[in-house]
Amino acid sequence: MLLEHVVDSELLKRWKTRDPLDVLVVGCGGTGSAFACGLPYLHQAMQAKGLVGLNVKLMDGDLISETNCVRQPFSRGEIGLLKSVVLASRLNMFWGLHWEGVGGYLTEKSKPDADLVVGCVDSRSGRRLIHELVARKSSCVDYWLDIGNSATSGQIVLGQPWNARNKQSAERLRTVAELYPEILDSSEEDEETPSCSAIDALTKQQPFVNQTLAMQALAMLSRLFWDGRVGYHGLFTNLVTGRTTPLPIDPRQWQRLKRWERKAA
Question: Which of 31, 51, 59, 164 satisfies CB 3.0 to 4.6 Å to 102 for a cystine?
Fold first, then answer.
């Protein structure tokens, strides 16, 4: 049974008449930086539609390294500076915005207060931390968008965390943690060492996988906030085969995945 997800009318009313849509982007590496660079276009599209627009906070404690300049939008003159602060400053100067760059990492003590949290982290432990924060009973996060990738493929999953804002229901969009709980298991995580060369960096994540996922995520969000509804809540893409498979809004499929996980356990 395929469904459409419709944005709550009260949220749309608030974003149209009073407040911007608060966005927190966690991680400003390959995918996070590509995603952030596309957000001004979404901001302007929303304003053209009559909405207030976006208020964005970029969070990352990483400093720009030489290898980051190979596949991320940073220059060698910015080596040693904070990724989040550089990105926010650049977007603000070019687009005349007042977005914020936070030079720090998400921690257990963090309290995400955004309408939309976008996770662009490259570890299972980082993804688990986001899940724990947005799914707290006291959390008022409306949506959690997870973007993850390997060298040549990746996925995006938009969900509504079960928290103070989103009550349990059959139609609530399940998060990546609920659909694929193994993605939070840090015991299965490969130990990564920092890339020390350009070829090493490109082998771990090949050109354009980050940009492809970022643009697909932004396109899905534009449908959600422009039309107030969307007919899918994620996708899987493979740059080797050129195949992209949408993740349907299907409560029956969610139940099947849950039963499969129980059997696998």
Answer: 59
Among 168, 59, 179, 40, which residue's Cα sits nearest to residue 112? 59
Q: What are phi and psi of 220, to 5 degrees?
A: -65, -40
What is the per-residue pLDDT across 106-124, written as a single tens digit (0 to 9) for each?
A: 999 999 989 999 999 989 9
Q: Pairing state of beta strands 100-102 and 54-59?
A: parallel
Tell me how far apart the alpha carbons of residues 109 and 259 are, in angstroms, rounded to a whole number. 33
| Strand 143-149 relative to strand 100-102, pairing | unpaired
Q: Please state the pTM of the whole predicted model.
A: 0.92
If you average pLDDT over every residue of the chain, what do you get? 91
Rg from Cα positions in the chain: 18
Number of separate domains in the chain = 1
**pLDDT for 63:** 97
Which tokens sit at 36? 């952030």
Using the structure block, give the residue that is written with the tokens 């890339």: 195
Which residues are bridge partners to 235 per DSSP?
Answer: 156, 246
Q: Report the CATH number that the domain containing residue 15 is assigned in CATH.
A: 3.40.50.720
Query: Residue 82 gets which letter from DSSP?
Result: B
Stretch (H or E) spanning 159? strand 153-159
10 Å CB burial of residue 250 (0-12, 13-18, 19+) is: middle
Report how far apart, in Å, the C-alpha atoms of 81 and of each of 18, 40, 92, 125, 231 are.
Answer: 35, 22, 17, 25, 40
Three-state secondary structure call for residue 265:
coil
Range of the domain at 20: 5-264
Q: How is residue 184 annotated by DSSP?
A: G
